[in-house]
Amino acid sequence: MASINYNDRIPNNVNLSSDRKLQRALERWQPAFLDWWQTVGPQVFQNNDIFLRTAISTEPGGWAQFGHVKMPDYRWGIFLADQEEDRKITCGDDAGKPVWQEVPGEYRNMLKRIIVIQADTEPASVEQQRWLADCAPSLMDARNLFQVNVEEGRHLWAMVYLLQAYFGRDGRDEADELLARRSGDEDKPRILDAFNQPCTDWLTFFCFAMFTDRDGKYQLGSLAESAFDPMSRTCRFMLIEEAHHLSVGELGLERVMRRACQLMQKDPNQDARALGGIDLPTIQKWINHWFGYSLDLFGAEVSTNAADYFAAGIKGRWRETKDFEDHNCLGATRAVSTVENGKLMEMEYALRNCMNEELRDAYAKDCHRVLSRWNRAVKDEGINDFEFRLPSTRFFRRQGQYANNNFDLDGNLIDQATYDANLAKWLPTEEDRVYVQSLMKPVHEQGKVANWIAAPRRGINGKPFDFEYVRT
Ligand SMILES: [Fe+2]
Ligand SMILES: [Fe+2]
Questions:
Q1: Ligand 1 mean position to 196 CA, how many Å?
Q2: What is the pLDDT of residues 123-154, one digit of tens each?
Q3: Which of 12, 20, 42, 84 is deepest in the core (most CB within 10 A)?
Q4: Residue 398 CB coordination number (10 Å)
Q5: For residue 203, how many other CB atoms are within 10 A of its CB?
Q6: What is the pLDDT of residues 260-303, one digit of tens each?
Q7: Cα(432) to centroid(ligand 2), Å
Q8: From the CA of 122, which ligand is nearest?
Q9: Residue 152 CA: which ligand is closest?
């Protein structure tokens, strides 16, 4: 089961050839996908040989094979983690009962909606990033971007498989719509706001991979706990690929920080910008912006939808099976800071209604872990009077219950005037954006790297930094 059949037109480990109807439907969708890839996928190096990894098995460890491939020839396919024998529902009213191999009628719409929203983010990010290679700081960075892009394309395949295999005609229509919406389009935008934001500089890309892809990790983790077993298996394999995207973001940002520290020490005023770097306070503003945008993706703090998903066993918490004992949570409560009569206070809510907040907490904790690593890197570079920090989860929110009020970086409720007076200190200004954009000049020479970012400490799959990651 784990090995992948690459002889089929659509590589898969789901025995696709045994279901002719589904196979035909997916084979009809395939040219539309390739057309979408050519039109709004990477617009630079589209037909060059790129050093990419391809999945060869869904078993942990031996799953990736590296080699040069032209992106349009990448073998996108349908790969699910192996079925666990006797898997039981992990949470909600039916915890402990056998998982579903088909979609129960009463949860059909709920499940379809969740899959469509997750699916929509996959092509959206590829569209957002389609011009980035044009100003890549190195060929290895361009390669990393393309690896992320082809895998997001594969994640789209994974979700489209679920739609077409389990949701009949509706599912096929939704699969077509996924190729019709466009990131940032006025008439047919992508579903979620963060996926309609422009991404034209690499600082934004690294923040996106660090913070927004990490939201994806937590969403996939909660869906991996799902009672709908095919979705759980799909998400479990996607999570393995997703880990690489997060490291592209985390290590990319660390390299920008290290370079800033190095330049600070060369400049008499410790000004990294004077020497063409991205100064640490500017990086902090990008972090503030993207952390906030990504927090919004978890949904409202107190949510009846979240309670319904949990009760149905469709979405669990992060590591529901491993880290919790009470998988029912009926009658349990938790506190959520809430604005009441102009004051911020702790209020108790039914825990089931706070499942978005539970997932957001796990996500924020993970982000804090990375922040401490970055702060160690800054110290390691000899800068002792600067520390990166994450803002409060109430800061700069446009969705959920904090969206209607203003908060400072520590999460204190503040008035509009105070907020406005500090905005330029907390979030990227137009001037910051123009400056960062001005640094975005391509370095497309093997083994060379842009001045504003440190060279990576390690290459890909044991290769050195000056390896031919992109054949130009
Ligand atoms: Fe993805
Ligand atoms: Fe991703």
A1: 16
A2: 999 999 999 999 999 999 999 999 999 999 99
A3: 42
A4: 13
A5: 26
A6: 999 999 999 999 999 999 999 999 999 999 999 999 999 999 99
A7: 27
A8: 1
A9: 1
Dist. CA 35 → ligand 1 center (Å): 20
- Using alpha carbons, select from 149, 156, 146 the residue that is nearest to residue 29: 156
- Distance between CA atoms of 54 and 11, rounded to whole angstroms? 11
CA distance 196 to 182: 8
How far, in Å, are 105, 108, 235, 239, 359 from residue 223 at the CA level? Answer: 19, 15, 7, 10, 11
d(CA 377, ligand 1 centre) in Å? 28
What's the pLDDT at 7?
A: 80
Task: Give the β-pairing of 343-350 and 406-407.
Answer: unpaired
Question: Closest Cα to residue 126, out of 74, 78, 171?
Answer: 74
Domains and CATH numbers, the chain: 16-438 (1.10.620.20)
Nearest residue to 383 via CA among 259, 202, 207? 259
Distance CA 83, CA 280 (A): 46
Cα–Cα distances (Å) from 268 to 260, 263, 451, in that order, read: 14, 10, 18
Structure tokens at 199: 């991404």
Beta-carbon neighbours within 5 Å of ion ligand 2 = 213, 242, 245
Q: Distance, CA 362 to ligand 2 centroid (Å)?
A: 18
Distance 118 CA to ligand 1 centre (A): 8
Q: Which ligand is nearest to the CA of 121?
A: 1
Starting from the CA of residue 245, give the closest ligand.
2
Enumerate residue ranges in the chain where pLDDT < 70: 1-3, 60-62
Reference 133, options 144, 122, 117, 125; nearest CA is 144
Report whether 143 contacts 472 (CB < 8 A).
Answer: no
